[in-house]
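Z., the sequence and structure:
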Amino acid sequence: MLSLELIVNETVKVKAALARRGGEYPIDEALRLDTRRRELIKETDALRARRNEVSKRIGAEKRKPSQAESDEMRTTGDKIKSDEQELDGIKGQLEALLLTLPNLPLADVPDGPDASGNVIVKTWGEPRNFAHAKPHWEIGTRLGIVDMEAGARITGARFYVLRGKGATLQRALSNWFLDVHTREQGYIEIEPPYLVKRETMTGSGNLPKFADNLFHDDESGYWLLPTAEVALNGIHQGTILEPGVLPVKYVARTPCFRKEKTAAGRDVRGIKRVHQFEKVEMFRYVEPEKSEAALEEMVSEATVLCERLGLPYRLLKLCAGDIGFQSAKTFDIEVWSPGCQEWLEVSSLSTCTDFQARRNNTRYRPERGGPTRMPHMLNGSGLALPRLIIAVIENYLQPDGSVVIPEVLRKYTGFDWIP
């Protein structure tokens, strides 16, 4: 959530930053509501002061109020009640409006209206193009490791079943990711609930913006995780982290559930864009002065996984028109898919500055006994499945149709190849 103080005091800056995202945002309406809010507060304070003044005078004079004073106090009380009701309504409108405003892009985020404005800042490896290349849905079906038909029978379109060594490959990838993050990179592993309350979803920035793309249980009011970021963001909501606690580094492996309405009609073949998938998510709480360095570290932590897997990738710096709602700056990692002849996003790494902390009231205390501040929060896939499965089986496909397992995964799979 954007700071109302920032909107009021630096209106031109806020409008300019939001304009970089494209679209129109109700900043003037926020200012109008805030002006009325201030007027009501001033008016009710004056009315209460007048009521107290009259009451004190009558008490000091040890007498009953006159008819005129009684009428005035009744009128004043009615006006205070009316103003308080209007003030509550104004506060509600203002909060609802602020929840619809996205984060401000940082100054070094490239300009651009959409993905066409993204900038490639790094490439690693040489994209493979070989004569025997096949798309993953052909490889998976022939090897008996991906079963789209079973997924459709069980649930419906865009669900799938991993069989045998396919299921083992996914487990091996996610276990290896978690081991690297926890044993080498210092993250604390978390196993969070997969269902969260509305406040948690709102605090992460997913509600109200993405309500139509989330799965929700009407009876309980719970929401299914679209990403572990939501749960990791909610661990400290409404709390104050004491001095010396930051930075906090969490990692979690969870299923992710998305309706993917925005993707209807495209990218629906195979397991590239589905309603349920697994992902390992990194999340950090840091002091604001250290968030830039933290983002760079997280990018390195994710790209090293691709390098150890031997998968060619490119690192993109997203433009202002393509970053996510809660993001202030984002890098995407895309690995090469020789069978589909395209780059597949396997990680999106973002700093959200204090946007999420403000939404869910997460604070930290830099010094014991001192004032609190809002931490910066960062998140990033480390990495996302099943697109890593796609990349592995397409890049490691052999001329005879078998798939070789990357060396770093073999102690996790227990086998070297899928015949």
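The chain has a mean pLDDT of 96. Residues 189 and 251 are 5 Å apart (CA to CA).

Let me know what you think.
H.
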